[in-house]
Amino acid sequence: MNILDTIIAEKHREVAARKAVCPVSELESRPLFTTERRSLRAALLQGDTSGVIAEFKRRSPSKGDIFANANAVEIASGYEAAGAAALSILTDAHFFGGSSEDLTAVRAAVGIPILRKDFMIDEYQLVEARSIGADAVLLIAANLEKQQLRLLAEQAKLLGLEVLMEVHNEEELDWWNPWVDAVGVNNRNLKNFEVSVQTSFQLYEKMPKESVCISESGIDDPELVFALKNIGFQGFLIGEFFMKTPDPAGKCREFIQAVRQLETLRNGAITSL
Predict the structure, then answer these.
(1) What's the average model confidence in pLDDT over 179-193?
(2) What proportions of the chain, in percent to the nearest 5, are helix, strand and coil?
(3) Were both Cys, which of 69, 160, 218, 238 would link to 195 (CB 3.0–4.6 Å)?
(4) Residues classed as catalytic
(5) Which pLDDT score is estimated for 193?
(6) In this model, does residue 258 exceed pLDDT 90?
(7) CA–CA distance from 113 to each of 103, 129, 135, 174, 259 (Å)?
(8) Across-strand partners of 68?
């Protein structure tokens, strides 16, 4: 059994336990269930956007603790002030040290879109995502059957949530359907956790252009963002690179400023030719 299989097995147990404690009717009665959503897609298509989706996570299965005692509101608010276009909040507790409470607290503190980052396997989690204040959800092709992903994407849209479909190879691009708002190439192989940003460069031309295109994981250099933007990527999900520092928000600000300086320099050089 690989790491992904282990995570999904645990997620089935976790979701079943939560269903037994908190029925859908209770989730639907929460105040955040009916609040207006913010669009991740629109945020990434704005002309002046940094394109950075800054991620909050305390640990990972491959690295262990990254920033174990991190404060979600403090860091997420800092990300927003630094110029992040959107946020990704890990809500998996067992493997990533996150919680639904983290996302709800962040929702009250920021005005930019929030992606609920978790391993979604059940419609219950979509209702849950809406009830805790998420604007978008992640659906991972590697742990869903094609029809299952389509059904979850459709249900998410009916709930007013946007959908980021995550792929790791060309075959998984076939999971795309019209309910998907954005496609993210995860440069990290979820079966062995090896990272190669070349995966994004290799898959871009085959990605559905109806969706916003996002590169995820392993992005640690402004030059990479510049190169990925040049071929057409509009979003860049960055987490560990920020979170492994004492000041994630400060690192995010420094990174975004470096990207913008690089764009000004390169684009200015092209204009002067």
Answers:
(1) 88
(2) 50, 15, 35
(3) 218
(4) 55, 57, 117, 166, 186, 216-217
(5) 75
(6) yes
(7) 11, 13, 6, 27, 21
(8) none
Q: Which two structure tokens, joined as six digits, stand for 198? A: 């070349």
| Strand duo 212-216 + 136-140: pairing | unpaired
CA separation for the pair 152, 8 (Å, rounded): 16
Q: Are 130 and 159 in contact (CB under 8 A)?
A: yes
- d(Cα 111, Cα 264) in Å, to the nearest integer? 27
d(CA 75, CA 72): 5
β-pair type (64-65, 86-90): unpaired
27, 131 contact by CB (below 8 A):
yes
**DSSP state at residue 205:** G
Considering only CA atoms, which of 179, 174, 170 is closest in space to residue 200? 170
Q: For residue 204, which of 192, 187, 190 has the smallest C-alpha distance?
A: 187
Distance CA 173, CA 179 (A): 14
Both tokens of residue 63?
């690295």
CA dihedral 14, 4, 210, 117 (to 10 degrees): 40
272 has a pLDDT exceeding 60: no
**Distance (Å) of CA 122 to CA 95, 113, 221:** 18, 22, 36
pLDDT value, residue 267: 76
Q: What whole-number percentage of the chain has pLDDT above 90?
A: 89
Report the C-alpha gap between 99 and 168 in whole angstroms: 25
Residue 1 predicted with pLDDT over 80? no
Q: What is the CATH number of domain 3-271?
A: 3.20.20.70
Nearest-angstrom CA–CA distance, 225 and 240 = 16
Beta strands in the chain (DSSP E): 52-56, 59-60, 64-65, 86-90, 114-117, 136-140, 162-167, 182-186, 212-216, 235-238
